[in-house]
């Protein structure tokens, strides 16, 4: 019975004083006074109960570590089915409260046909990378390494099963221990430890891998190698924050730059060096599968402060300098390109490289020529290192085109366009400036001030509808939201989540709010987004990539601890089957990893009905501002399960 009905019934039952002819007026006054008292009492009770109900529903009990563990470890046996969310609540000793009917009156199991249970895939798919599948790659042209680019499966070949973890899979070591160690059972590949034994990339020690920090061109270790670079260009004054390492190996260069507050995108193909990128991510170091072939790297123009190649074996001088032209596109004005390995210092190493002096000299001369035509300045060549610097603007470069006709400066080109965009042999133009001292596109603050300073792309009005005030409001909003996440998921603050992905990063506010924790964030901007904000994210000193979530992401399975999905499914629900997006999230999420969804309740209920068949546990919560906000939060945990050892044994027997 509502307050209005309750109010009406109670008023109707108030006894009325009978009036008799000639009765004293005092009785009429007393009767009116009683009626008024009843009316006020009932009104007060309605208001009191309303306030109590609203207050009770806004109190969200945090998920304690013990409760989180209960959620994570439930259904460890692959044969177990995912229990109904309500029953999960009842068994959690009151630590959290799932109250789906309080505000929305939606039954989560009222979908036709019930919950669809997704079976596990065969164990042979445990390292499946849908868009970089070696078997599918054989069908494509090997010229310019096109076969190693993204080639996603057609709809009829999409898997509708869950990628299994290897038997005996364990949670990775916590950062910073993970920089140096990884469990062998998580990535059972000894190839690199044998092939690169002399170069100290990786060693097997009992049940784990150890990463000594070595590399092909830094036998003394990545730390000492970085110190050598720091003697030539300043790495620790805050001017260099973002870097890209092409042909990264196991990402030791990026791993050791982190303690110098430099965030590196380690970039390598899926090739004969088994699981390079997988090793990098297992260590807690940012990395992606990728290759310099015929298409642009999936990053905006002017993204990185520094680019690096240490014996990456990329033919920089081929195809009219096409690959160096692409590095020029993604380098910030004034950014550095560092090269070590062939052909640098060829007079010392030519015998070990099994190449002639003439061949190596010709290669270095060709690289030097391309760099000059790009208007780069050679900063220094010392010992094993050579460093070039991109100009801060193109005023002098335009004048130099009277001497160097090629490569010409691109015309009418969207410099940030990088999703399945072919590379071109022309120089990406820098924004215009008024004098030779001005930094094209705008100067950046030093790190860490850079993270919250208004980015130049916003200052100059390049992002439609986003002002400096919008930027500041977005920062405040995400500070509040991440503080709320910390309350409902305490492990956020304790290093439980190292590799974090934001599937719809916007202006990068979530990543900025996460900087206080021992985590890094892969900021993803949907390739078909109305606002291309990835350049803004890089200007803030964070890293990320373009991605169409109707396709698989360029990473190995089980490489992220926490996935943040804010309004992703509202964007994609009419573009492709969201079931496949959720299966892709399951593929890249580690066992016992967590997902935070933000969306309307209708979308979240649909998501929850699918994830119940994926061995996930979930809970819908109110928005941090209270129950009256139409946006809700769905918190989900992927349960622990692995492939069957017997299945692995059969697989090995088939291979033999």
Automatic annotation (TrEMBL):
Broad class of where this protein is predominantly found: endoplasmic reticulum
GO cellular component: endoplasmic reticulum membrane; endosome; trans-Golgi network
MF terms (GO), sorted A to Z: methyltransferase activity
One example of a Gene Ontology biological process annotation: methylation
Localisation: Endoplasmic reticulum membrane; Membrane
EC numbers, comma separated: 2.1.1.-
Membrane topology label: Single-pass type II membrane protein
Name of this chain's protein: Methyltransferase
Organism for this UniProt entry: Acorus calamus (Sweet flag)
């Amino acid at each position: 019975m509502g307050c209005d009905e309750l109010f009406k019934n109670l008023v109707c039952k108030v006894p009325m004083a009978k009036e008799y002819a000639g009765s004293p007026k005092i009785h009429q006054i007393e009767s009116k006074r009683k009626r008024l008292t009843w009316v006020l009492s009932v009104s007060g009770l309605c208001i009191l109960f309303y306030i109590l109900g609203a207050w009770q529903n806004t109190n969200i009990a945090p998920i304690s570590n013990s409760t989180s563990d209960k959620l994570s470890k439930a259904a460890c046996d692959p044969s177990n089915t995912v229990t109904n969310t309500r029953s999960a609540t009842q068994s959690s000793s009151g630590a959290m409260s799932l109250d789906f009917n309080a505000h929305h009156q939606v039954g989560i199991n009222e979908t036709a046909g019930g919950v669809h249970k997704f079976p596990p895939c065969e164990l042979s798919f445990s390292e499946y990378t849908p868009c970089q599948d070696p078997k599918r790659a054989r069908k494509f042209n090997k010229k310019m390494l096109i076969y190693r680019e993204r080639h996603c499966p057609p709809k009829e070949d999409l898997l509708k099963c869950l990628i299994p973890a290897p038997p005996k899979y364990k949670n990775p070591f916590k950062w910073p221990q993970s920089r140096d160690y990884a469990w062998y059972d998580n990535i059972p590949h000894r190839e690199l430890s044998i092939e690169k034994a002399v170069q100290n990339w990786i060693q097997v020690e009992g049940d784990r891998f150890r990463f000594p920090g070595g590399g092909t061109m830094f036998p003394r270790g990545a730390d000492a190698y970085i110190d050598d670079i720091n003697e030539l260009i300043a790495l620790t004054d805050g001017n260099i924050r973002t870097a890209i390492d092409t042909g990264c190996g196991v990402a030791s260069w990026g791993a050791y730059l982190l303690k110098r507050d430099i965030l590196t995108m380690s970039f390598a193909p899926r090739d004969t060096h088994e699981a390079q990128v997988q090793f990098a991510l297992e260590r807690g170091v940012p990395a992606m599968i990728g290759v310099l072939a015929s298409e642009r790297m999936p990053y905006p123009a002017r993204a990185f402060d520094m680019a690096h190649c240490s014996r990456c074996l990329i033919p920089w001088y081929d195809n009219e300098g096409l690959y160096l032209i692409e590095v020029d596109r993604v380098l910030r004005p004034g950014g550095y390109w560092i090269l070590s390995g062939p052909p640098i210092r060829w007079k010392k190493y030519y015998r070990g490289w099994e190449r002639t002096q003439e061949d190596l000299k010709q290669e270095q001369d060709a690289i030097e020529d391309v760099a000059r035509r790009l208007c780069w300045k050679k900063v220094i060549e010392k010992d094993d290192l050579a460093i070039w610097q991109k100009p801060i603007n193109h005023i002098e470069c335009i004048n130099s085109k009277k001497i160097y006709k090629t490569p010409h400066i691109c015309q009418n080109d969207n410099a940030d366009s990088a999703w399945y965009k072919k590379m071109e042999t022309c120089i990406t133009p820098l924004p215009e400036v008024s004098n030779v001292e001005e930094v094209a596109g705008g100067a950046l603050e030093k790190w860490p001030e850079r993270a919250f300073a208004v980015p130049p792309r916003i200052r100059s009005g390049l992002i439609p509808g986003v002002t400096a005030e919008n930027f500041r409001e977005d920062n405040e909003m995400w500070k509040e939201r991440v503080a709320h996440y910390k309350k409902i998921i305490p492990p956020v603050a304790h290093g439980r989540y190292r590799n974090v992905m934001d599937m719809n990063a916007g202006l990068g506010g979530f990543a900025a709010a996460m900087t206080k924790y021992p985590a890094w964030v892969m900021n993803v901007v949907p390739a078909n987004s109305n606002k291309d904000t990835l350049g803004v994210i890089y200007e803030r000193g964070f890293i990320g990539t373009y991605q169409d979530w109707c396709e698989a992401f360029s990473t190995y399975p089980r490489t992220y601890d926490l996935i943040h999905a804010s309004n992703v499914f509202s964007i994609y629900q009419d573009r492709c089957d969201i079931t496949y997006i959720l299966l892709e999230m399951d593929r890249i999420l580690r066992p016992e990893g967590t997902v935070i969804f933000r969306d309307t309740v209708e979308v979240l209920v649909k998501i929850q009905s699918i994830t119940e068949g994926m061995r996930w546990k979930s809970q819908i919560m109110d928005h941090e501002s209270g129950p009256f906000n139409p946006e809700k939060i769905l918190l989900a945990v992927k349960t622990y399960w692995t492939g069957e050892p017997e299945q692995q044994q059969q697989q090995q027997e088939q291979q033999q």
